[in-house]
Design a protein that fits this description.
5-stranded antiparallel sheet, 7 strands, 15% helix
């Protein structure tokens, strides 16, 4: 199944303890339908070398909604950049 949310998009949490928080998507696991959002679901992790660390955890894909998609270059814009680079 193709997911509509990709790395770099801005999403808002609509369910759970972090409801209402917004953040950028850091990582997507499409097979498990989980995403990691910057600043949401902060978990503490103990490491022998570094001690206590605070890291983001994964949230289920169904508990977020897309607020703003990351702007992507279209084929027309890429073609325009190539022709302008060749003419210089």
């Amino acid at each position: 199944m193709k997911l509509k949310i990709k790395t770099g998009d801005t999403v808002q949490v609509i369910a759970g303890s972090d409801k209402g928080k917004k953040g950028a998507v850091m990582e997507v696991k499409p097979t498990a339908m989980k995403i990691k959002i910057q600043g949401v679901k902060i978990q503490t992790h103990y490491d022998k070398k570094d001690g206590l660390l605070k890291k983001e955890g994964f949230i289920d894909y169904s508990n977020v909604k897309l607020v703003e998609a990351k702007a992507k270059a279209t084929k027309e814009k890429k073609a325009a950049k190539k022709t302008s680079a060749k003419s210089k």
